[in-house]
Amino acid sequence: MKLRWMTWLFPSRCPYCRKVIASDRTECEECAERITSEGLRRSLETGNICMAPFCYEGAVRDALHGYKYHGKYSYADSFVKAVLRVLEPEHYQTDLVSFVPASPKSLQKRGYDQSRRIAVGLAKELHKPLVPLLQVGKAYRPQHSLSAQERKKNVWDAYEMLPGLSPMGKRILLVDDICTTGYTLAACSRVLMQSGAKDIFCVTVAIRVQNTG
Question: Can you give the pTM of this predicted structure?
C-alpha cells in the first residue's frame, strides 16, 4: 500500500518531456520515436572513437542537465537503453566496463557519480564486470565553464590509475555522460593505454556536434 501511495505522489516521468509514464517505461512513446539516432561518432585525440545515441541539444541536453545537476537519478535507465541501441560488435567483446570518475568536489556536491550510474546499467545489460580503474589525481576546474583549449589543458593530466589496479591486456568500454570536446575521454584513455590496456571503446549518452564544443 505504501508503494502505491509513493507511486501516486511521485510518478515516473519521461526524462525528455516530463510527461507521466508507466512505472515500467523509461520514456514516453512519443519521445521514444522522436528522439532517436543511428549513432554519432567522435574521433578523440588518442585515436579512440566515442559513440553516442544523441546529439547534445534540446530535450536531450535538458534531460542530461536534470540528471547531472538536479538529482534525476531515474533518467539513467533511459540513457542506458539509448546507448545500448548504438553499440557495435566490438563493444560486446570488451572484457570490462569502466567510467570517467567524478571529482571529489563534484561527488560531495551532487552525492553521486553520474557516469558511474550509467556504467552500472551498461555492465549489467552486457553481463560484464564493472571495474573502477581511474581516479582524479589533481583538482581541476569544471569543464563547462572553459573554452575548448582551456578544457584540454585542464584535464590532460588530471586522471591516474587507482592504486593496485591494472588494465593490462584488457579491452575496456569506457563510459561518460557527455562528450563535448572529447578531451576528458582522451585524457582517461591515454592513462589506460599507457598502463597497458589493449583497446579502449568510449560511449556517452550525447555528443556535442560542434567544432570547438
Answer: 0.85
